[in-house]
Amino acid sequence: MIxxxxxxxxxxxxxxxxxxxxxxxxxxxxxxxxxxxxxLLNHYNxxxxxxxxxxxxxxxxxxxxxxxxxxSGKNIAIISDAGMPGISDPxxxxxxxxxxxxxxxxxxxxxxxxxxxxxxxGFDSRSFYFAGFLPEKNMDKNKVISQIxxxxxxxxxxxxxxxxKKDIDFLYKSLGDRKACLTKELTKLxxxxxxxxxxxxxxxxxxxxxxxxxxxxxxxxxxxxxxSIVDHVKFYINLGMTKNEAIKKxxxxxxxxxxxxxxxxxxx
Length: 268
Fold this sequence. Notes:
CATH superfamily of the largest domain: Tetrapyrrole methylase, N-terminal domain
Shape: globular
Oligomer: single chain
Radius of gyration: 22 Å
CATH topology of the largest domain: Cobalt-precorrin-4 Transmethylase, domain 1
Largest sheet: 5 strands, parallel
């Protein structure tokens, strides 16, 4: 059996009895970083396990190795440095391959930074969209934003410390001056949350691991209804969409045939 095991996101006590039991009994543990994982394993006196390195740079190749081990009869645990494997961490490629090959696997639930941050923020949790880490290139960032700018759902982003100010500035310019909550060092001694508007990030120690919660769009589709079709299409083109992509999105949002939109924007 292959187990995707959630591990603590900070406090080492935030792990389930079942997760510890699985880690104690499996034959192999696939770790994002074996050095980081050994801290957790040693804390729970889990020793003499075969550890293999399973990270974003060898995920494709190592997924096949893990499948071969499972087929040979080994029980394997998949863990990341923190949280749930496959959520902004290695694991999703393996899960897809297992489904394709109809190989059984299961999930051992546990800590999740995005869920903890959402609850801490107090923002609307009835509907939310997890965007993970923003891409490095602005063109790729614009493609992400173009898909979520009109969502009324709360938005959740992971932010690395070296991209903190740059990403928040990008979101302000793309989404407008929305309310936000930044959390860091979740479940640790110096856990912190800061409320602000995207236009004015307060001074904050940029060291650590961050989750950013941003309020969803308010009446955004009604705002677009007051714009011309041309301006609506230009809005998405400026975010990095191709003209055809923008036409399709505008047609969907206005609930009209895309040919009607196309006729309006022939000259742009």
